[in-house]
Amino acid sequence: KTRWERWLVPAFVYFFQKLYPFAWVNDPANGMAAAAGGCALVRRDALARAGGLAAISDALIDDCALARLIKRQGAICLGLAETTFSIRPHDGLKDIWTMVARTAFTQLHYSPVLLAAAVAGMAVIYMVPPTALAGGLLIGENSLAGLGLAGCLMMAGAYGPILGLYRQPPWAAALLPVAALFYAAMTIDSAVRHWRGRGGQWKGRIHDG
């Protein structure tokens, strides 16, 4: 509902889908598992067989840890719905930033190498196409501009379904590179918080590996 939510939450779901392709998660033969803590249903008997919540008591990203635990018992399903509504709004940038910075470096296994690779990957995928388009137009290099435009169109096409799900206008795809820049900065801040001993803050406690 807020400006920051409309801009950054669809991008968050988009990046989550890239980290955890739903088709892989839903494939019983694939070892990848993931869940979204906002809405997760689990059979009580399956949870008991897996060791209960005590088995993931030390996990910071507990929803995905729960998914891995349950998938060892059988199939799981991860998807998006149009009939669910969040009761926990993110009123401003600070709320979204804190949500991401709390676990982003954990997702990278606290590795500076993976951090550098993730930030470099975000830059190449999301910043190079618009930069090439703008630079090509500026210096009159049509081939460079054409390649940049092609990259931007592919980016917009991949992002389009998520924008449609959240009823956002198609032109919002042009803001994805800026959103990616913000998420890269949140990931770096997550690492800085960890190195300063303030990582994994949740409900007034520091829970960090």
What does this structure look like?
- This protein has helices at 3-19, 22-25, 44-50, 62-71, 93-107, 112-139, 142-165, 176-195, and strands at 201-202, 205-206.
- The protein has 209 residues and is mostly helical.
- It has a two-stranded antiparallel ribbon with strand order 1-2.
- Helix 6 crosses helix 7 and helix 6 (112-139) packs antiparallel against helix 8.
- The longest helix is centred in the middle third of the chain and has 28 residues, at 112-139.
Any descriptors?
mainly alpha; two-stranded antiparallel ribbon; globular; 209 residues; 2 strands
Q: In terms of structural class, how would the helical and strand content be classed?
A: mainly alpha
| Number of separate helices | 8
Secondary-structure element order, N to C: HHHHHHHHEE
Helix content: 55-70%
Give the tally of β-strands. Answer: 2
Biggest beta-sheet profile = 2 strands, antiparallel
pLDDT averaged residue by residue: 90
Q: How large is the radius of gyration?
A: 19 Å
Q: Largest sheet, order of strands side by side?
A: 1-2
Which stretches are poorly predicted, pLDDT < 50 over at least 5 residues?
A: none
